[in-house]
Amino acid sequence: MALSLKTLWKTTFQHPWFQGIVAFLGYGYLRMVGLGVRWTVRDVAARDTVMDTHGACIVCFWHNRLAMMPWGWRGRKESFHMLISSHSDGRFIADIIGFFGLKTIYGSMRNQAKTKNKGGARAYRDLLGALKQGGAVGITPDGPRGPRHQVHLGTLKLAQRAGVPILPASVATRRRWILRQTWDRFIIPAPIGKAALMFAAPLWVPPEATEDALQALALDLATRLNAVDRCVDEAVGQGKAHA
Description:
The chain is built from 7 helices and 9 strands.
């Protein structure tokens, strides 16, 4: 029986057509959420100012806020590339955000500096290319596997190399489910109640920043991300219960 279930999983549930159907259903649900909630706060001033002035940026948010972030690029015509893990769950997420019109770059910023990590190096090059062409890239700086709410230096090194600002962002809904068994306590929004979206002031990485300076900036970015999380949570009535 165990063997047959394993075979069923590989032949059916991991098949591209099945995952495509599930991804479309996931997109339909998230679209229903975005249309069904009441957007009491939609602060995109920092996003629009940065894009209108510089034409490119890195949008950062914690991994557990990923589900609703595709709504954060509504109103902009520039391209948006999201950095997604190449694992099977990452490709499932890529399929969902693809229905929102967002593009995917597969890889991770966690170990991009290691020469043996060819996937990370390729992702780094692709991200640089996307930024040079204009538009935004989205990165969860604690992804894809944590530690939770800790910024990997790859995001800062990318901003330094590309000469673009980092925009901290977050989104929250009043009603939601928190998957507490996952490493990041992933949030699934409910399609009713209040919702809030916010982009914070940009963070610039000086071209001369040393490794020690990058470590300090990583802590600064984490502080900013936690602060914008609190802002959107409080806006929808979550108060201190932010995830």
